[in-house]
Amino acid sequence: MAYDELLANRIREALSDQGQVDEVKMFQGLCFMVNDKMCVCIRDKDMLCRIGREQAAIALENDNCRQMVNGNRVMKDFVFVEAENLQKIKDFDHWISLCLQFNKIAKLSKKKKNK
Fold this sequence. Notes:
Elements: H1 5-14, E1 21-26, E2 29-34, E3 37-43, E4 46-50, H2 53-62, E5 65-70, E6 73-81, H3 89-105
Antiparallel strand pairs: 1-2, 2-3, 3-4, 4-6, 5-6
């Protein structure tokens, strides 16, 4: 599992004023959970943004990002943003803002029961 530690620190700082923030290893990287909901993740040097289906459709038309595909399944709430599109503070802040906006209305995932 490889991820950019500098990007992780930028995300930690950006989320520092949020209530509950947890870091969980998943998607071959590191995910930041805000209020028990997946918000933003890092894989390698890219940021995986959970921004919702509608905003993702807009972003895919207007921004430098790509849809997340897990196996054969398109994950319509998620887009990957490449590292070169996160260098400017305003661009990074834009994506974090979209993630936090969606986090407010995102549903909690169902907890898996241990057998």
